[in-house]
Design goal:
The protein is mainly beta. The chain is built from two helices and nine strands, in the order H-E-E-E-E-H-E-E-E-E-E. The chain has a single domain, classed as Lipocalin (Beta Barrel). The two termini are 25 Å apart.
Length: 154
């Protein structure tokens, strides 16, 4: 009973725990020009669990492939034509692993275990964070991702 109470307190003291929905991703260059790597209306979810795991999935909202009748079975995924595979890679980002954060430094670190970009596995992705009006801001000067808590479906 005591352990459950401790777990509950730990979970509630972590402001990241839960599911976050992507609102926007903006990159700003040195001249102040803003670009949107996954379009102005990206689709994405960021999950943080109370036991320290995380997962991020982001995609452009206008993804498509040439053959809309392509089989849905996962076994066929590797047979997608090269042109469609390139388009899928260029419009999608995913990775997962564990995470740690410091309120003192305002830094969130994703310890990547697996993901779409091979060189990320085994490495850390660190970024500044802040909370404002029930939104989570991740990034820095040149990159800013804004997330809001996802609506519960439980």
């Amino acid at each position: 009973m005591q352990l459950r109470q401790k777990e509950y307190v730990m979970e509630n003291s972590n402001p990241f725990t839960g599911t976050w929905k992507l609102i926007s991703w903006e990159n700003t260059d040195a001249d102040g020009n803003v670009t949107y790597p996954y379009g102005k209306h990206p689709v994405g979810y960021l999950l943080y669990t109370s036991d320290g795991y995380m997962a991020a999935e982001i995609m452009a909202s206008d993804r498509h492939q040439r053959d809309i009748n392509f089989p849905l079975e996962p076994a066929f995924a590797q047979t997608l034509p090269d042109e469609d595979r390139v388009a899928a890679y260029n419009t999608y980002l995913s990775y997962c692993g564990t995470y740690s954060y410091s309120n003192e430094t305002g830094m969130m670190t994703h310890h990547v275990k697996t993901g779409l970009i091979p060189s990320w596995a085994g490495n850390d992705q660190s970024r500044h964070f802040r909370f404002e009006d029930d939104k989570l801001f991740l990034g820095g000067k040149s990159t800013q991702l804004i997330w809001e808590r996802a609506v519960s479906h439980a």
